[in-house]
Design brief:
The chain is of the alpha+beta class. The protein has a single domain, classed as Nuclear Transport Factor 2, Chain: A, CATH 3.10.450. About 25% of the residues lie in helices and about 45% in strands.
Length: about 120
């Protein structure tokens, strides 16, 4: 699993060559909602819709367990901040064939400031 390729995808929404299986299954869990997508093109369209001008991506822990890799990210756009946990499963052909996302949700600037005031973090 090439985490740099994955985070590059998150930054731009541009599909990396042969990283995702064409029929990749995506189970996306966001605050108060859950939806599923099928296919690399559908995943890329969703990613572009979420951050049409790109986003900053910070990678936290990366844990590989067999065919599945867990990746923590922080995503920041001009309008929001989100912490995510991604589960990426490599298929038999070496392409990611399943993506599961757990997201704290997009926080606006007011929510980010409130969290910093009311619940300062001990660790980043």
């Amino acid at each position: 699993m090439d985490v740099d390729t994955f985070t590059g995808f998150l930054r731009t929404g541009d599909l990396p060559d042969r990283f995702f299986a064409p029929d990749v299954f995506c189970d996306l869990n966001v605050p108060a909602w859950r939806f599923q997508l099928q296919g690399a093109a559908a995943l890329a369209a969703w990613a572009k819709g979420e951050a049409p001008h790109g986003q900053d991506v910070t990678t936290g822990r990366v844990v590989a367990a067999g065919a599945t890799t867990a990746v923590e990210t922080v995503l920041v756009t001009e309008r929001s901040y989100a912490r995510n946990l991604w589960l990426l499963r490599d298929g038999a052909d070496g392409q990611v064939d399943e993506v599961v996302l757990y997201c704290t949700g997009p926080w606006d600037a007011e929510t980010v400031a409130r969290q910093a005031r009311e619940a300062p973090m001990i660790r980043p």
